[in-house]
Amino acid sequence: MGDNSTLWTLAIAVVTGGTAVLASWVTGRGSARAATIQAETAARTQRAERLRESRRTAYLDLIEQAHRMGELYWETSALLRRPDSPERLETLRALHDREIAEYARIRRCARIVELEGPPEAAAAALALQKATGPFYTGVTAELAGDPTGRDRLDAAYAPFWQCLERFVDAARTAHQRE
Predict the structure, then answer these.
(1) Contact, 95 vs 76, CB < 8 A?
(2) In this predicted model, what pLDDT tens digit does every residue of 62-100 receive, in sequence order?
């Protein structure tokens, strides 16, 4: 009878040991899987936050550049209200050169927004960029001696600011969805 008891005790010990090893293995796999999921989730969250910040920076840069362009246009409009003179023409040429340089910056900002997305913000950014065209046309007309240049410039303000408003709305909507 003593041998049976030993055999049962040994069998129970083997089953208990096997169960412990199996439980340890299952727990280890579960912990490893949980750690992998947690790492993947953290990486996705970091990527999303980097994209969000990158987009926000692009949006703010474009808005800032649009305001710089607006200030330049106001300066140009104020100049065009002065009487014709050689100094006025020379200053207008200098403002035109600044306008070309500022356009290059707004174009770059719009392209970055186009790259960063989403499509609604990109479309609004490109529309804002294109809204600078009538100002350019007005200034070049004035430089060419066309008396309608000032009127063209004055007529370009409302569409430009409306495009800026649409961009800000699109950027805000995109930023809030992220």
Answers:
(1) yes
(2) 999 999 999 999 999 999 999 989 999 999 999 999 999
The model's pTM is: 0.78
Radius of gyration over every alpha carbon of the chain, rounded to an integer in angstroms: 34
- Quote the Cα angle for 172-174-175, to 5°: 65
Contact 158, 96 (CB under 8 A): no
Question: Degrees (nearest 5) of the Cα angle 133, 137, 141?
Answer: 175
Which pLDDT tens digit goes with each residue over 4-14?
777 777 778 78
| Mean pLDDT, residues 101-109 | 97
Residue 83 backbone class (left: φ over 0; alpha: ψ -120 to 50; beta: rest): beta
CA distance 82 to 142: 13
